[in-house]
From TrEMBL:
Residues 6-200 form the NAD-dependent epimerase/dehydratase domain. Pfam families: Epimerase. InterPro entries: Epimerase_deHydtase (IPR001509), NAD(P)-bd_dom_sf (IPR036291), NAD(P)-dependent_oxidoreduct (IPR051783). This is NAD-dependent epimerase/dehydratase family protein. SUPFAM superfamilies: NAD(P)-binding Rossmann-fold domains. Gene3D superfamilies: NAD(P)-binding Rossmann-like Domain. It comes from Azotobacter bryophylli.
């Protein structure tokens, strides 16, 4: 196993879980943070962001492996996403390559990168994948494309699951849309499998909870209905209404210089008809298999 792991996004949802798992295994974790202090554990904190080359050089100095989880999920323009997700990723791989000790680099991307034309976010993550590979040279680059990630600490999907278990499912897009999910603990396990593999696979891998074909809205409602032993009412949010709200949100976000989550580009993501994927390639490369289906997570309130 790597002696020193450099980690970005260590205070975020996925990064926080991963950092704790690494520390529990006795790994020396060096983490990047824009804040002056970090948690009171064995993490070695480096103050700075993805735009600070000196901080990135300090982060990766002597590191055997780099795990890049940091990124922007909110933004009012394509430039805002590109500056962090694309340019920041390239700066990090260049620092890792120049350090001379990094053997493997994991880029935490997104399933949305499969369709870069859908949104600014998807485009910036796809561009990051391509440019990181080009800049890596002799550093082995692995790219993970997880689908919708949820679990304890997630603030985006938790309210939706809570409403679901109260008997209300808010649906977007077409009724037969295919969705997929992955629990954050399963994603962390996949990263640990990558870290201890004798050789890091140089490829792009999609990850989900292994539900064959993913889920549609009706199957999600059926799972919740069985758990709560009662009906689940589906409320469809009209796409034109969602687009209108997104334009309104984008306008005021730009006016007040804030980074919005809901934008017209994001609506295209949310209403896309097929977010199913296959774990076959990553299972073959790393021997990883997820353990937590959505039904189990909802039953045990593990979100």
């Amino acid at each position: 196993m790597a002696r020193i792991v450099a980690l970005t996004g260590a205070t975020g949802f996925i990064g926080s879980v991963l950092r704790q798992r690494l520390l529990h295994l006795g790994v020396h974790v060096r983490a990047l943070s824009r804040h002056s202090g970090g948690s009171e554990d064995a993490t070695e904190w480096v103050h700075g962001g993805l735009g600070d080359i000196d901080a990135l050089d300090e982060l990766v100095a002597g590191a055997d492996a780099v795990i890049h989880c940091a990124g922007a999920v909110r933004g009012a323009s394509s430039d805002e996403f590109n500056q962090i997700n694309t340019e920041g990723s390239v700066r990090l791989i260049e620092s890792a390559r120049n350090a001379g000790t990094c053997e493997r680099f994991l880029l935490m991307s997104t399933l949305a990168a499969r369709y870069p034309g859908l949104s600014w976010y998807a485009s910036s993550k796809y561009a990051a994948e391509q440019q990181v590979r080009s800049a890596a040279r002799d550093v082995a680059v692995t790219i993970f494309r997880p689908t919708a990630v949820y679990g304890p600490g997630d603030r985006e999907m938790r309210p939706l699951f809570e409403w679901l278990l109260r008997g209300w499912l808010f649906t977007l897009g077409e009724s037969e849309s295919r969705l997929s999910f992955i629990h954050v603990e399963d994603l962390a396990n996949a990263v640990l499998k990558w870290l201890v593999a004798p050789e890091a696979p140089s490829g792009t891998y999609e990850l989900n909870d292994c539900q064959q074909g993913g889920y549609d809205w009706s199957s999600i409602a059926a799972i919740a209905a069985e758990i709560r032993n009662g009906p689940v009412h589906q409320l469809s949010i009209p796409t034109p209404l969602l687009r209108g709200l997104a334009w309104f949100n984008l306008y005021f976000s730009r006016l007040f210089h804030r980074a919005p989550m809901l934008t017209p580009a994001k609506v295209r993501e949310l209403t896309h008809s097929d977010w199913s994927c296959s774990n076959g390639p990553i299972q073959k490369a790393l021997g990883w298999e997820p353990q937590i289906l959505l039904s189990r997570a909802l039953q045990e309130r593990w979100f």
